[in-house]
Write a structure and sequence with these properties.
174 residues, 45% helix, 5 strands, alpha+beta, 6 helices
Length: 174
């Protein structure tokens, strides 16, 4: 997710936030309106947490996590209660971290499809500013990208030629 963090850094710079995402930022998009589909196997597996009621309650708690510190505390709690996190559980928490980043940067959806990353931005009064910000972030990287208009009036950034496994591996740095 080097590319994603590069875009995020550019957006945060524009918001006068020099040190990256901190827990004090106000989301531009409500968390419950953001979709992150990078890890198809992100879940709390039945083998890890056999009780379905407990699993459901833990999913509810994950949905309410609002800061990186809360995610880390929850990660520690799961490790203490159920043992080392499964890869699926780890990816679920990474998705939650990415969701927090998306909220403060104005990204409504992040997804991996084939060998591309998709970033959906909601409709804005000045899409030219958004396109310029993205171009400034991406052009030095050499990634191939294009923009598509969404039926909702928003904008989709499609970044091509990215190996989905590399996306998963780089997400570990978040």
């Amino acid at each position: 997710l080097h590319l994603y963090t590069k875009i995020v850094q550019g957006i945060l710079r524009e918001r006068d936030i020099g040190q990256g995402v901190s827990d004090g930022l106000q989301p531009l998009i409500p968390l419950d309106e953001i979709s992150v589909r990078l890890f198809p196997d992100a879940k709390l597996p039945e083998q890890y947490i056999p009780d379905p009621h407990l699993r459901l309650n833990l999913y509810r708690r994950i949905a309410r996590l609002e800061s990186n510190q809360e995610i880390e505390d929850f990660r520690d709690e799961l490790n203490d209660r159920f043992g080392p996190l499964t890869s699926e559980t780890d990816r679920l928490l990474k998705s939650t971290t990415i969701k927090l980043l998306a909220a403060v940067t104005g990204v409504a959806a992040v997804a991996a499809k084939d060998s591309s990353l998709l970033f959906d931005f909601p409709a804005t009064d000045d899409p030219g500013v958004l396109v310029h910000r993205i171009r400034v972030s991406l052009e030095p990287s050499g990634y191939q990208y294009n923009f598509k208009n969404l039926k909702s009036g928003g904008l989709r950034l499609v970044v091509a030629a990215i190996n989905p496994q590399a996306v998963y591996d780089k997400a570990e740095r978040l």
